[in-house]
Amino acid sequence: MKESTTTSRGPHHVLFLVDQLCEMGGAERMLLNTIRLLPKSRYRCSLITFRIDPSLEFFHDFPCPYYLFPLRRTYDWNAMRMARKLRNYIRREKVEIVHTFFETADLWGGLVSKLSGGRVLISSRRDMGILRSMKHTWGYRMMNPLFDLVLTVSEEVRRFCIQEDHLRPEKVLTLYNGLDLGSVANKNQAESLRGSLGLLPSARLVVTVGHIRRVKGIDILVEAAAIVAKELPEAIFLVVGRNSEPHHVLELEAKIAGLGIQRNVRFLGETENALSILKSCDVFFLPSRSEGFSNALIEAMACGLPCVATRVGGNAEAVEEGCSGYLVENEDAGAAADRIQRLLRNPVSAREMGSVGRKIVESKFTDEIMIQQLVVQYERLLAARQN
């Protein structure tokens, strides 16, 4: 007999399983927003992760109970012990929905959750498989029948999952990330930014935001910056984000020195003030080699910036070519430089594009829209479980 899930038992318990919480990337921000915004009268949340950095600021005010189940391998004695612990938690705490993020949570955590009996299992897929190995590919193909629903961050990721994981299309739904537009509106420009960087008021600022990894294409930004600087020496390219691959950063610094553009490219590091920096800039450039769906891109659009982005992943689902910005092919620094120069030379047109981008975010990419659509799916699956 299936457990009852009526409201007389109180809010439905949703357990989020995520591989790690060691940095504040786009997926982590979206997950925290989801936990904060789910209706408390209807859902109570908890979170389990397999690796954690407790020094991170967001743990000081975490929106739900969270637990560390240390897991380095999924096939040793510790994994068996953690599986038993997870199964017991799910049963003891009457978890009704298990919502997983990333490979270990999807495959190991998803299997343990289903073996715990009758729970709704949802997977969030957030990229184009860039972190997968062959064992992950086969693991997904075996596990996918167990998922009640797979949520993807873009239509491009949805197509990838259907094609590569052999998922039935009706089980895969695109749920775009959502922004809190109120927090965006409340952010002012970083007034001291130009002064702190020793920049003249005439400097034109091009910015990108993201943890510095090779996949993010910062080397292509450097090449584009060298082209732009020849024509517009007042153009300054700002890179906001954590140094996640130190060896790659050393390569970038050598490349910048070799091109003689040390003055034109600045690394600002990781900051909680990214929105204020965005509002202080003129153009946003996303040179990624691969994306599922970029939070930074829609944040820039929400701040009214015209955007130049590579045509990868879900970028084309946010940027409307020639209306809110430009799309260029991956690795094409020359095309990116050309579009950036167009925007810097035509500030009126650039502002108009930025305004269009802000309206796109307001109509498609808000946290209210995201939560409403997620709740609809939760309720549908809970109702099906009762029947």
Q: Give the CA-based shape.
A: elongated
* Number of separate domains: 2
Look up the CATH topology of the largest domain.
Rossmann fold
Series of H and E elements = EHEEHEHEHEHEHHEHEHEHEHEEHHH
Cα-atom Rg, whole angstroms?
22 Å
Q: Which stretches of 5+ consecutive residues score pLDDT under 50?
A: 1-8
Strand fraction equals: 15-25%
Write down the CATH class of the largest domain: Alpha Beta
Structural class: alpha/beta
Number of E-type strands: 13
Q: Supply the CATH architecture of the largest domain.
A: 3-Layer(aba) Sandwich
Strand order of the largest sheet: 3-2-1-4-5-6-7
What does the average pLDDT come to? 92
Helix content: 40-55%
Q: Termini, distance in Å?
A: 11 Å
Tally of alpha and pi helices: 14
CATH superfamily of the largest domain: Glycogen Phosphorylase B
Keywords:
Rossmann fold; 6-stranded parallel sheet; alpha/beta; 7-stranded parallel sheet; 387 residues
Explain the overall architecture.
The chain has 387 residues and is an alpha/beta fold. It has two domains: 7-178 and 366-386, Glycogen Phosphorylase B (Rossmann fold), CATH 3.40.50; 181-364, 3-Layer(aba) Sandwich (Rossmann fold). The chain has 14 helices and 13 strands. The chain has helices spanning 26-37, 77-92, 103-115, 134-143, 155-165, 181-186, 193-196, 218-231, 246-259, 274-279, 295-302, 333-345, 347-364, 367-386, and strands at residues 12-18, 43-49, 66-68, 95-101, 120-125, 149-152, 172-174, 204-209, 235-240, 265-269, 283-286, 307-310, 325-328. A seven-stranded parallel sheet has the order 3-2-1-4-5-6-7. Helix 8 links the parallel strand 8 and strand 9. Helix 2 (77-92) packs across helix 3 (103-115), helix 8 packs across helix 12 and helix 11 (295-302) crosses helix 13 (347-364). The longest helix is centred in the C-terminal third of the chain and has 20 residues, at 367-386. It is elongated and about 65 Å long. The protein starts with 11 loop residues before the first strand and ends with a helix. The model is unreliable at 1-8 (pLDDT under 50).
